[in-house]
Sequence to fold (211 residues):
Amino acid sequence: MKRNYILLFAGYCLLLVIITSGCGGGGPGSPGSSGSENTGIKVDASVEGLYLNDITYSVDAFQAICEDGSDELFTDHQATVTFTARLINPGSTFQAGKLYIEKYTVEFRRSSDSIGAPPIESDTRFKTIEIPAPIGAGEVIVETDILLVDIIRKAQYSEDMLSGRYSPMPYYINNYTAIFTFKGQNEFGESFKVKTQMDFQIGNFNHCQAG
Fold:
């Protein structure tokens, strides 16, 4: 009888390990950073959409002709990314070096309510972003603009939606998540990466009044 209880307890523990290993935490695309154990610096990032100097998460993929006959303002849709860096161990004598982000990749995933939307090709850009090493318990905040969806991907999206191959939606609007991965190294050659994500919609939006 005692042996049966031991086996039952062992089986319960094994089941608990399996269940908890699949819960929570960062799956693909989850925000976070890696390599901080090598650089001694933890970096978090947040991002917001930026278009024609306005904060917006609505990406215009269709250039229209305005009522006055002029072309609607139309360009790349940008994003503003904010990095916040802090020492993992503020009391350590470890000498942390500056961080240099060298490139970033944007992946686009269709939201569950837009499964019938066209895929958007991922984009990789090379850009040097310097993040000074924080001191003590302080934080270093660096903000810069990057690309969210460029004109080429906008044009491809509009072409796909007008082709009739994808589910028609009012104003051709679909929802996506942009997953940003920033990669770089510190001044001592230790590699790191930072991930963050942002939800946005893309379709036909009116910017004739802008500017």
Remarks:
- The chain has one domain: 30-203.
- Helices lie at 2-21, 36-39, 151-162.
